[in-house]
Design goal:
This protein has about 400 residues and is α/β, with parallel strands linked by helices. About 40% of the residues lie in helices and about 15% in strands. Helix 1 crosses helix 8 and helix 8 packs across helix 9.
Amino acid sequence: MKLDGITVLDLSLFLPGPAATQLMADHGARVIKVENPRAPEPTRSAEAFPWTQGGETVMFRNTQRGKESIALNLKTAEGKKALLALAKQVDVVVEAFRPGVAERLGIDYQTLSAENPGLVYCSISAFGQTGPWRDRPAHDTATVAAAGILDVTRSPEGESGPAIIGVPIADMLSSYLALSGILMALHRRQSTGAGDFVDISMFESVLAASPNILGPVFGGNQAPERLRERTHGGNAMLNVYETADGQFIALGGGEHKFVEALFEGLGREEFIAAVTGPAGEGHWPAIAFLRATFRERTRAEWATWFEGRDICWSPVLTLKDAWDADHVWERGMRFRDADGNDHIGSAIRFSQEPAQINTKLPAVGAQTAKIIGELDLTEAERKAILAESN
């Protein structure tokens, strides 16, 4: 597999770091997860994440598979000694402490790279390692709010307040950027022998995902007026419409061919010119027409009407309906292990050396003794570390 021979030390919790390291594990990396024996990975807890399957939380199962777990308390001398010894022989370290914490613990990039100059060290934080916001505490929703995205996430019909986005985009975008940065640094290390420090900000990950909505900000020095913008409700062909049975459909493409196919099919060719033009007032009469028209039939009836027409659209599915879809199963994005537990498949596909997913989950500290036995330590040091890790 692509990452055979790469060893990753994962100090992170919850989602951004673990999601990135799980992708690495799926593609051949050895991932060693460090857990405090007295406060292990929070997503193991069914109190915090109540949906379980096969005795584990769904969240833990789909962020920690295929990893090894070593139990270390990094605030003790024994735990820190083990971590420093382990860091000498890994390729990658991923951590998601608040800025400054790794340095206080003595496990920051400068300290670890002094003994392992080829180390790629990735820090994921809310706002980055520098700047006036670096010490702000924040998880996904707060960083998305700070990036201006909650403000533009509102209903395209009528007035509403900001809406919580249905997926943790800051967590996942920062996870994917962390993976990208780590792989870039590993590639560069092949020619230089030197590792690097990768500073990933959840907030900046969301900012970087915004080029298609920044026209009014960069071009007009103003916040977007939502119903005048193409992706926020001001375009008839990029919009959500209710049907007669209280379901919804989404139109998702405004190219001229889609506009023609829709309005010719509905017998209202007079809307074509305006809807092909810029979003805003010119689209509003067509949007009003479509809102009234789509409410005349059920979603199933509209699905039949759309068949054979070259129009970019989709029913608005529930999360369950989406994950139950034949397409999802056939592509392997959802699969079941031998015990009947569901898993998210790998969205990174290769024709050569595809992911080989190991669905086994580690118990807290399950590999501690094995990993400690691999380190350059005295027998007395090993015994002290193992005693402390219990």
